[in-house]
Amino acid sequence: MHKVVILGARFGGSATAYWLHNLFRRRHLDITVVDQWTMMTYRPALVTAAAAHPRLADNWHIAMQRRCEQAGQRFVRDSIFRIDPQKQQVHLASHPPLPYDTLFVATGSDPGWQTIPGLGADSGGVCEDYLARQTGDHVQRPFRSIAFAIGPLAQAPQDRPRVSGSLDLPAFEVSFLLDAWLRKQGRRSGVTMTVVTPAPVPGEAFGPKSSAFLLRELSRRHIDLITNARYARVESGAIHFADRKPLYAEKMMWVPPYHGSKLLRVSGLDDGYGWFPADQYGVHREWPNIYGVGDVSSTALPKLGHIAMMQARTAVHHFYALQRHGTPTPFRPYVLHVVWLGRGKGMLTMSNWLYGGGRELMHVGVSSALAKAAFDYGYKVFSGWMPVMP
Questions:
Q1: pLDDT one-digit tens code per residue, 60-103
Q2: Are 300 and 20 in contact (CB under 8 A)?
Q3: What average pLDDT does the chain have?
Q4: Do 228 and 279 belong together in one domain?
Q5: What pTM was estimated for this model as a whole?
Q6: 203 lies in the same domain as 248
Q7: Is residue 60 part of a domain?
Q8: Within 13 Å of residue 298, how many CA atoms lie on the same side as its CB?
C-alpha cells in the first residue's frame, strides 16, 4: 500500500489530510499524520485573546488527532528531527524512522526572534497561545503607550512576489480591537498606540483600496503608523531603528520575523534561505515525491491560513492526478481575509493584486464580521474539515 506521511496538523496539514481522505479510498493509501501536539490552536482567533481577553484562547483548541483517526488515518505525536529524502524516511524524537512513498511537509515557518538584537518572545506577541494570553493579560493593567510591531520576512532574492513584513494583519486587528475595548472601558484617552511595519503601506498584500481604508481607519482612531521600519535592536520599553529616532512604548506586541524552517535546513531540502522550493503544484524542485504546503513554502505569500488550505488542495489534486493519469490544476493564489475592526465590524478583502492581477474586492461592515465569525466557528466545529473547503 502506498505510504503517505503528512508533517504538521495545522491549516496546511489538516487540509492535506482532508483532501487525501476525500479523494482516495482507505484501502488505497496508508496515511500517517505527524505533529508534536494532538490539539491545534486556531491562530486567527488569538487576536481576540491578545486584545484584553486572554481566557478566550481556551475556546480555540481543536482536536486534530481525533479528526484524523476518525478518518482511518494514523496520528503520531512526536517532534520531527530530520527528513532523509534519499532513504525516504522521517526521523522523529521518540519513534523509529517513519518511511514514506509520498511526503507532504506542512510544518510552517520558524519565528526568527533572534534576528533582531534584543528581541525575544518575552517582548510580547500574538501568534501562539501563550503569547496571546500574555499580551491580553498585560493590557488589562494601566499603561500609557503600546507598540504593535511586525517583523520582516527573510525571502530568497529570486522569490516572487515579494512582501516586506512577516504578517501584518494580526497587528492591525489587535490594535483595532484593543482601541475599541479601551474606549468601552473609558481608558483610551492618554494612551498612545503605534503600529510599526517594514512595509511601505499597511495591508501590503491586499491592494490599494484596502491599504487606503486601513490608513483612514488608523487616522480616525488616532493610532500612529510607522512604515518602512528598519529595526536595529529592541530593549525593554524601546524599539531602535537604523534610520530614525527610537519608539518608546511601555507595552509591545510583536508578530515576529520569519526566516524559514530549521527542519528544511538540516534536511537539505530548503532553497538556501529556509524555505521549501516548490513549483506551481507544490512539488519540490529536486524531489518529486515531496510536496510543500503552507507557510513553509516559498510560494505561500502572504502567510495566511487560506493560502495554506488552497495549496493543500492543489498539492493533493496533483498527487491524485498522477495516480489517475489525469491533468492537474496549478496553484492560482488570491488573498481572502477579514480584518476585525471591533464593535462588530470587519473589513473583507478578496484580491489578486499581489500576484499581478487587477481585482480587489473590499467590503466593510457587520456582514464582513459575521462572515469571519461564521468561518471561525465552522472551522472549530468541523475540526478543520469543513463541508466547503477552499
A1: 999 999 999 999 999 999 999 999 999 999 999 999 999 999 99
A2: no
A3: 96
A4: no
A5: 0.96
A6: yes
A7: no
A8: 24
The parent domain of residue 253 ranges over 113-258+333-381
DSSP 287-353: -TTEEE-GGGBTT--S--HHHHHHHHHHHHHHHHHHHHT--PPPP---EEEEEEEETTEEEEEEE-G
| Dist CA 126 CA 130 (whole Å) | 8
| Strand pairing report for 29-35 and 2-7 | parallel
Q: How far apart are the first and last CA of the chain?
A: 29
Question: Would residue 251 count as lying in a domain?
Answer: yes
Q: Cα–Cα distance between 362 and 352 in angstroms, integer?
A: 12
What's the CATH number where 12 sits? 3.50.50.60
Exposed (0-12), middle (13-18) or buried (19+): which is 157, by Cβ within 10 Å?
exposed
Q: Which amino acid is at 58?
A: D
Copy the grid coordinates of residue 122: 518575552
Q: Are residues 207 and 355 in the same domain?
A: yes
Q: In this structure, what C-alpha cell is assigned to residue 381?
A: 466545529
| 242: Cβ contacts below 8 Å, ≥ 6 apart | 230, 231, 232
Q: What angle do CA 174, 179, 183 make, to 5 degrees?
A: 150
Statement to judge: residues 274 and 150 lie in one domain: no
- Residue 31 β-bridge partners: 4
Pair (208, 309) in one structural domain: no
> Which residues, in sequence order, are bridge partners of residue 89?
84, 99
- Which residues, 6 or more positions from 290, have their beta carbon under 8 angstroms from its beta carbon? 83, 85, 102, 103, 104, 105, 269, 283, 284
CA distance 218 to 277: 37
Q: Under DSSP, is residue 343 helix (H, G, I), strand (E, B) or coil?
A: coil
> Which residues of the chain are modeled with pLDDT < 50?
none
Phi, psi of 278 (to 5 degrees): -110, 150
Is residue 53 situated within a structural domain?
no
Split into its structural domains, the chain has a count of: 2
> How many residues can be counted in the chain?
390
DSSP string, 271-296: -SSSSB-B-TTSBBSS-TTEEE-GGG
Whether residue 128 is contained in a domain is answered as: yes
